[in-house]
From TrEMBL:
This is Adenine DNA glycosylase. Its EC number is 3.2.2.31. Belongs to the Nth/MutY family. It catalyses: Hydrolyzes free adenine bases from 7,8-dihydro-8-oxoguanine:adenine mismatched double-stranded DNA, leaving an apurinic site. Keywords: 4Fe-4S, DNA damage, DNA repair, Glycosidase, Hydrolase, Iron, Iron-sulfur, Metal-binding. Gene3D superfamilies: Helix-hairpin-Helix base-excision DNA repair enzymes (C-terminal), Hypothetical protein, domain 2, Nucleoside Triphosphate Pyrophosphohydrolase. GO terms for molecular function: 4 iron, 4 sulfur cluster binding; 8-oxo-7,8-dihydroguanine DNA N-glycosylase activity; adenine/guanine mispair binding; metal ion binding; oxidized purine DNA binding; purine-specific mismatch base pair DNA N-glycosylase activity. Adenine glycosylase active on G-A mispairs. MutY also corrects error-prone DNA synthesis past GO lesions which are due to the oxidatively damaged form of guanine: 7,8-dihydro-8-oxoguanine (8-oxo-dGTP). It comes from the Bacteria.
Length: 342
DNA sequence: AACACGGGGCG
DNA sequence: CGCCCAGTGTT
């Protein structure tokens, strides 16, 4: 089945996307493992478009692994704000320090990479292939879709993962590991798309069983997801002398370790719900922030108070810099904008 | 195996 | 508005 590899690599030579963490096919340039790793962590469960500005910011500010490893946690988390899945940022820091302490070079095998924080099966395979030209079976959501269609695997995900991986192993060539992995992703991203696949442009269309059977767009099948509940919550805007009170969220749970407005726990706690951070004449702020999380939707109200005197916990942040510099996750940025802009 | 974990973009 | 995306870690 070297046919798939040959065709896909030839297609990639002509149609590879130009991306900041990529070296062009056939250029002979070895990619920087630091940049490959950084891009792969950022790209977990998000899109190339979303990552672009963050990758540029991170590589400009921390051009090397050593620079990143030496940075304060809060600075890195703040730079990550808005990208989501904040455990990735904490693992990024932990991984950078692990590698830096170990001499500064990334492991160059899948097994070695797999030991690092934030590096799972997919990322270990991807880095081994792209940065170190190791043959590895790289299976992300793009590859799952391409392979499920190519072999017409009808079993729904996630149960079909082992079958899909075995099929992906069959078509993975023994050469140009990184190019093949990235070619599969480009194919899945631009041609073998979830809806309306561009089969007429696909270099594999005449090998594709699902295409022959007319079911390409219906694959891969997925087991139905549970409906997302809606939760209610309140955020508190406490103002004093041109400053607003910010807190740092706990190290575990939603938006862990991120700077935030005080809130009431969003109906998530058994006790203490609805408690403002201090007593006073709270004013209702017009509007609602609706924010989608992976497994629920949050509808958050905002209440505001002008405080006097000191407050024991939290930091007072200049209001005119809170939007640009506080590193608030999007939920709390929207809440702040409700107060500041209506 | 199931769940927790963000955010934005698409039809 | 529902679905999806270069997944990982925990239980």
């Amino acid at each position: 089945m070297g046919e798939v590899g040959d065709r896909l690599l030839a297609w990639y030579d002509r149609h590879a996307r130009t991306l900041p963490w990529r070296t062009p096919p056939g250029s002979g340039e070895a990619p920087d493992p630091y940049r490959v790793w950084l891009s792969e962590i950022m790209l977990q469960q998000t899109t190339v478009a979303a990552v672009g500005p963050y990758f540029a910011k991170f590589t400009e500010r921390w051009p090397t692994l050593q620079a990143l490893a030496a940075e304060d946690d809060a600075e890195v988390l703040s730079a990550w704000a808005g990208l989501g899945y904040y455990a990735r940022a904490r693992n990024l820091i932990a991984c950078a320090r692990t590698v830096a302490d170990g001499g500064g070079a990334f492991p160059d095998t899948e097994e070695g990479l797999r030991e690092l924080p934030g590096v799972g099966a997919y990322t270990a395979a991807a880095i081994a292939a792209i940065a170190f030209d190791r043959r590895a079976v790289v299976v992300d959501a793009n590859v799952e879709r391409v392979v499920a269609r190519l072999f017409a695997i009808r079993e729904p995900l996630p149960a079909a993962k082992p079958s899909i991986r075995a099929a992906a192993d069959e078509i993975t060539p023994d050469r140009r590991a990184g190019d093949f992995a990235q070619a599969m992703m480009d194919l899945g991203s631009g041609i073998c798309t979830v809806r309306d696949p561009k089969c007429l442009l696909c270099p594999l269309s005449d090998l594709c069983v699902a295409r022959a059977e007319g079911i390409a767009e219906n694959l891969p099948a997925k087991t139905p997801k549970k409906a997302k509940p809606v939760r209610q919550g309140t955020a508190f805007w406490v103002e004093r002398d041109g400053h607003v009170l910010l807190v740092t969220r706990p190290g575990k749970g939603m938006l862990a370790g991120m700077r935030a407005l005080p809130d009431d726990g969003w109906s998530a706690r058994a006790d203490g719900d609805g408690e403002p951070p201090l007593d006073g004449d709270w004013q209702h702020v017009e509007g609602t922030v609706r924010h989608g999380f992976t497994h629920f939707t949050l509808e958050m109200q905002v209440r505001r108070l002008t405080a006097q005197g000191s407050h024991p916990k939290g930091e007072w942040w200049p209001i005119d810099r809170v939007e640009a510099e506080a590193g608030l996750p999007t939920l709390f940025l929207r809440a702040a904008q409700l107060v500041l802009r209506g």
